TrEMBL record:
Top-level taxon of origin: Eukaryota
Domain FAD-binding: 7-234, 300-338
UniProt keyword annotations, A-Z: FAD, Flavoprotein, Monooxygenase, Oxidoreductase
Gene Ontology molecular function: FAD binding; monooxygenase activity
Pfam families named in the record: FAD_binding_3
Membrane spanning residue stretches: none
InterPro entries per record: FAD-bd, FAD-dep_Monooxygenase_BioMet, FAD/NAD-bd_sf
Protein name per the record: FAD-binding domain-containing protein
Stored Gene3D superfamilies: FAD/NAD(P)-binding domain (3.50.50.60)
Similarity field: Belongs to the paxM FAD-dependent monooxygenase family.
Amino acid sequence: MTMIKKAIMIGAGPAGLAAALRLKKASGIDCTIYEIRKKPATIGGAVNIPPNGVRLFNELGLYDALNTRASSASVMTIAPTDKTPLFEYDIGEACKNTTGFGVWRVLRADIIEVLLAAVQHEGIPVVFGKTLTEVLEAPETVKITFDDGTVDSAGILLGCDGIHSSVRKLHVDPVIEPEYSGVSNMFAILPTIALVAPSTTKPAIQMTFISDGLFSVVPCTASGDQLYWVYSRRIEIPGDEDSRDGWEAFGQKAIQELKTGMFDALKDVTGQWGDAIRGLISATDTIKFYPIYKMSPSCRWSTGRCILLGDAAHAMQPHLGQGTSMALEDVFLLSRLLESGPAQLDESFRRYEELRRP
Ligand SMILES: Cc1cc2nc3c(=O)[nH]c(=O)nc-3n(C[C@H](O)[C@H](O)[C@H](O)COP(=O)(O)OP(=O)(O)OC[C@H]3O[C@@H](n4cnc5c(N)ncnc54)[C@H](O)[C@@H]3O)c2cc1C
């Protein structure tokens, strides 16, 4: 067992909030979470939570809170471009039969709201609007500094600050950079009521492979009143500069092309389903563009008193819908190692990497 009395989490996303909740409840460790955003926020959209994630939300005591918000629609349909499904499978039922837990599609905002409420219920401070500038490690402690001059210190620092992690860049592995995966997503949330074609309200996970990508539609609330659609396709990095500005301008152009050229990209999708997809896009006012980055497996994950969790360590492409669940698995393993693992922190970190990297 590692004698840690206080932990700091950088990032109030799924990894940071879940880590604080788990370490406080399982080990009585005092936690403080620092978040760069000024208030709770996400990139928007919804996520798929497979049974490994649902099980860990249950372990956190949040099953009911999320189950009443998430869609549990579980029939997955993979459609070709005409109306006959290539493949139809009750993935939720199959998961329940083998693991005891089904699958959810849930709004990111709902996950954060539920986790945040639980964290606040435990009295764990979440401090918003904090930009990390320095991490300094000593043998018994790690000290952090923010751009407003404030400092804090703890026995362990958890970098839960996502793919563009400052804990990683400032301290754990300053050399490594996330790589663009070559794939970008365009996505939107749409009230079901806005739809022209009623067939898409069928509660199921629908995926269609078109000539240059994947178009997927899923309900993402328990009542089915909101749908999440995502169009995922290969897009070359714009120009030479991989800058945020370049991507923003490029994203706007890609969205415009999708809206004006949607009949082109989707021309092979025929029948009622094709009409439904076109109806979905034309009924959508705001489409978001998200270039997908990933971390190289060679990224360093820890130093003496700092460790990376979730996307900060191992952001992956989203097509298996495992990112959030992988972050939760990180949290539970780290908690177990701190609670009943080796006495030395570096040995716990070594075990964590040994078990998580594969
Ligand atoms: C398009 C897309 C679709 C996806 N679909 C799915 C899916 O279906 N299912 C699924 O499980 N996963 C999906 N993912 C992946 C999933 O979003 C992530 O794996 C998951 O959110 C990781 O959680 P995290 O807490 O590690 O990081 P994040 O969710 O990125 O949270 C990091 C937090 O840290 C904050 N932060 C950043 N920098 C700092 C800093 N310097 N200081 C303080 N705070 C900071 C951020 O504001 C944020 O609140 C998808 C990802 C993308 C991009």
